[in-house]
Design a protein that fits this description.
Blueprint lengths: L16 E6 L2 H6 L1 H7 L7 H4 L5 E3 L5 E6 L7 H18 L9 E5 L20 E6 L10 E6 L1 H12 L8 E5 L2 E4 L9 H6 L7 E10 H4 L3 E5 L13 E10 L3 H6 L6 E11 L2 E17 L1 H12 L7 H17 L3 H9 L2 H8 L5 H5 L17 H10 L3 E6 L4 E4 L3 H11 L14 H8 L5 E13 L4 E16 L4 E7 L8 E4 L4 E3 L9 E4 L3 E7 L13 E8 L11 E2 L2 E2 H8 L3 H4 L14 E5 L10 H11 L5 H10 L1 H8 L2 E2 L1 H7 L2 H18 L4 H4 L9 H8 L13 H19 L3 H21 L10 H4 L2 H7 L11 H4 E2 L4 E2 L2 E2 L4 H24 L18 E7 L1 E6 L8 H6 E10 L5 E8 L3 E9 L6 E9 L16 H10 L4 H6 L6 H7 L10 E8 L9 H17 L5 H14 L7 H7 L3 E6 L7 E6 L3 H10 E5 L6 H14 ...
Parallel strand pairs: 1-3, 1-4, 4-7, 9-14, 16-17, 17-18, 17-19, 18-20, 19-21, 20-22, 35-37
Antiparallel strand pairs: 2-3, 5-6, 7-13, 8-15, 9-13, 10-11, 10-13, 11-14, 12-13, 22-23, 23-26, 24-25, 26-27, 28-29, 29-30, 31-34, 31-44, 32-33, 33-38, 33-43, 34-37, 35-36, 38-39, 40-42, 40-43, 41-42
Amino acid sequence: MSDNIAAYHSKQCPFDVIVITSPDEKSALAVRELIISSCGQFPSNYLEENASTSVLESKDGTLYISTSDPYGVRMGSGGGTIAALAEADHEFLKRNCTKLPTVLICHAGGESSRSPTQIALGKAWTSLPVVFRHERDELTGASFSTRVSNPTSLLIDSLSVLFENVPKGSVIVAASDVLLSFGGEENRLNFDDIEKNGDNINNRVIGISVPAPLETAKNHGVFVVESGCSSNERLEKWEMRPTHRVLQKPSRKEMLEIVEPPCTFQHSNGTTESENEVSAEHLAWIDTGVITFLPGAAATLRELSRSSLKLCTWQGIKQMHEDSRSFMDQSKSSRAKRRSEALSLVQFAKLHAPKICLYSDILHSLRTTAGNRELPVHDDVMSTIQKALSELELVTCVIPSGSFIHLGTSGELLDFLSLGTSGINRNEGQDATSNVEAFGRSIFLTRRALACLTSNESNVIQSSVVLNTCVRSNNSNIAIGCDSLIEHSMVQQDNGLSIAFEVGDRCLVSGLRPNIKGSSLRVPSGICLQVLPLTSSGLHATSANRAFACLCFGVDDEIKAVPPKTVFGVDFKRFLQLAGLEDSDLWDDVDKRMIWNAKIIPVFHEDDEMKLDLSFLEWIHFLVDNSKAAEGETASMYYKSMPEFQQWKNSPRLSISELRDHVNPEAEVLHRKSIMCNGVQCNKPLLAVTERRNEPCNLDYILDFVSNTFSTKNILLWEFSEVRSFLCELERVIWRSAEERCFDIVGRGFMTMSLLLSDINDSLNKPISTDIDLDTSVNHHDYAVLASLSGPFWRRSKSELLSIKDGKIGPYALSFNRSDILGCCAFLEKAASFMVGRCVRGNDLQVQISASAKPITPDTTVVASAPSRIDLSGGWTDTPPISFEHGGRVACLAVTVDERRPLQARCCLTRSKGILLRTESRALMDGELVSSSEVRIERLQDMKDYNDPLGECSLLKCALIYLGLTTAHDISAYPSHCIQPYLNNFCQREKLESDVGLEIVSVSLLPTGSGMGGSSILGGCIVAAIARCIGVTLNKDNLVHAVLMLEQMLTTGGGWQDQIGGLFGGLKLGTSDADIVLKTNILQYNLTSEVRDELSRRLALVFTGKPRLAKGILQNVLRRWARRNSDIVRTVHELVCGASEAVDSLMKGDLNRLGSCMSSYWEHKKIMAGLESGVEPDFVKSLLTLLYSRGDVVGGTLCGAGGGGFLVLLLAEGKTMEEIKLRVDEEGVDEYSSLSWHSCAIDEVGLTVELTEQ
């Protein structure tokens, strides 16, 4: 791909004056905004200071003139060229310039009759989304952005390269309603080399030509050149060739029959028809519409503008009109005098200005090798033109690598955008599959530019193109079909309501305004819909409110077919039949009846609430969907009775031909500009973060942009301002919130950035979102940087943490390297977890714990034991940050398992030195030792793996740090320090001469990954035992918070429900408010003995034989919560409500209702984790299905996070665990054979701490 992506405005323009013509004066006035925004170097407020001028001066001194044919006279492309040249010379010389200017004249084309959606401004201003290079943004570091370009802007860019050293005083004329590519800077025309070869080029006229298929060439001009490029003569670059003749819209047969010299040549397309034969396509040298009059030839044109063609210029018409009036005043004929006085300037121009075609009149008058053609001479003016131009030689510059695209119809525009962007996701270096795709690549056509689509549900087909459009439908859906174009539209409601926006396949939708009336807008497949503003003085201005024309027709309707074949894509006769219309309903008394002059365009006014009613589209939708199926008079009656049809029929209606006289192009341009300025920017996704809203950030527009924008090795996605600007804005939010100590916002900011980068990478077909493991992806250096987030001076490390401008996140680069993205995401998620930790412990940077009693003696052991817990409903709402961002509520029970309290910690002082840590896992049935690990701590470095959840005795190490033995900083800074001084101080022995030792043993009878809160409850037991041993008094509320801190240190990031469930006896409802400082409240309930006994009889625990690590599922839940998708926010709310309902069921003794709560709870858990997380193993699903189908249970859920561990069942009344187990075993399913069944009973005591003698 070329490096010169729409960046030529930054170079010195070779043209002194660029004249851009429009069909009429009001269009010329309107397109000044487009010239300023896309064609030159202008300040954004240029027109505010130059409101009335048609001459715009760019920063580089180039004059841009927006004009039209003088006095509204349509004088042809030749007459328009003369008028534009005279105006260019006049304006240039007015500025005290002594030399004639080099002029580029861009003609906008005709009335856009075959492409009605361009009728307001002309096909020259067709909107095209392209990638644009600009100077590196100092704030964001971005070097690229997307923009809405147009054929005129692209043409000026291309011609600025092609004619970089064109001789001064030349005049270049071009048609800007086509798309041209000349192959890049290697095809820059070198006029110096031509003159060195001895050619006198001063009086030449050069036609620029590129190869085109005969099917395209037959609709345009064709150059027949000498020494034609045949299949045996391959050109590598541009070349000047003598012109033999010029053909105007020749037939395919005519071109093939011209052989001396040949008109056509062949180009191999590589398609093998047989082993020895390669097919070749016939091509011709098409006239691109770019005609260059070198200085001598340009002088001839200038002379004609001052003499024979004076009546083609503004000044000439005015002068001749005044001269004619003066002549008539001197005339003796009073009749002639009265006639002169009555003839206005405009009337005079229309009567006397000649109509001249640049191509059939001027071009055909030039000298060719075939000799001058004998053209019909209508009058003395044409005779003078032919005589003056016949001395000028016409040569053809053939550019073999160039290409030509003509967007003649709305369908051709859609096809171009679809095919031209079809290579976006193709691997770099892979050849284009079509000429259109190659052309799209050459201009860096893309599918999204200034596009923002945000909704609850989105189904936007990737091949659709969206530009300068903002659709916000937060509570409704957006659907855009295949190969459709949405442009210059703002779809939203000011009152906060949402509108469903559905567009079918191959549609063109343009100009939609905000506040459309109703709750939905549906455009059927194959329909063009454009809303256009009308002038207030128009024919149908029957209201004080603004009027709009709703231009609606079928994409493939033949606008000028006589008689019409289709309308709205429906057979025309069938349309008349179903609608009950006569020809007189659509046409006045005209001879040629066609869509062009049929009154099918309804005119609507905004209502008093400034809403626009487009409900007539429902009738067209029904018509398109059912026209073939509907039959008979009944169908016709149904159509005619539809209120949407009556709205269309009874509204004032215009024809397309009339529309041009009533449309307000200036209002349309201002509408488009308002979207560019406020559309995408008005979508403020970060408000969800900064205002702590439980709603999504709506970053779909960035992901949509990523999926639909060209990106190569030389153009990294991160260099695009659309991506970089958001990341930089998010970075600023993070640092500003950090300064304000709003650590919850900082954490959500880090998490949002991580998810965005992960989604960006996933959209590029490199999924990583399920691969991120924070422990393996973040190395020790990263931890050192991230650790600064926990201390008081972490702001000093800002540049090490984030520097989006420099393309860095931590130590990782913003690149397409998978390992870099993986590192960025893990780094950011870990940063978010540090911020959650700060919120969990409050704003105090260190936990202050002081001894309030004497430590125990070395001959005493502290034993802390506790039951396990089962969660009945509300789980996940206790997990930070959900618990303090939304607020949490969990119902849980403390239970024994097989009549045992399965969790215990022992702690004692010893007379030996150092610390001995030991963990034991024992069998539930008999207490036999299954596994153990032991760690002796003598130096601080022996505790360095305290935050590794898989490290040996890591939970015990975290408890020691929490209670104040040492700090994470000291462990990192002084690893070789002996532990003994720390230990003596910890145990209040610093004043004694003898050292002390400490022994801590934790014991669990629950298998690893039980889901019954084992690690958290055990953590509470460990802290309670150590605290009592060293003389620190902690109540159960302190312990709940202590375990939260342990899990933050351990990076498992759990919630508060486990420790509440096991440390407090019986039934509890734990709650936490939505507050950035996490505070828990515990409500304990006393069940009646009858309810307690029945519940204990009907509860059963089934160990699945599959342990699970909550952390993996936890990470997935927190990522889903960070997105705040509506299903997750709704589920969290339902979990909170479910907890209260579960408690209420038990207090009323309604166990069957409790079973329903437990079943709903399990469904909510699966939504929170996502089925892809493995939260529900297949055999668990089949087991639950079996038990429910037999009526064995009324409720059940996997304990804790799910994925394995214990399954808690609430048996149906009258059922026993033994008989259910027997029936399950009889199924003969392999996975069922590994299940173990256990009894469960309510424990009313909770945590106990006792002293025993050694």
